[in-house]
Amino acid sequence: MFGLSELKQTRVYQEAKQEGKEEGKQEGRFEAKLEAVPKLLTLGLSVEQISQALDLDVAQVQQALQQKPLKE
Q: Is residue 19 domain-resident?
């Protein structure tokens, strides 16, 4: 029977671990983009300009603004 140390040495485990790390990085980058949306709007950029600058869909930009409204 496989022990934990033997399992961690398998190619399948190593690939899954690497894939998980990369997905985490991508999610982090996406979250950072969404956090930047309200700030860019306060600088005077339009939703379309923000979408283009951050490589997001206009719908994603609008959704980010609904989730994190600007503080007045």
A: yes
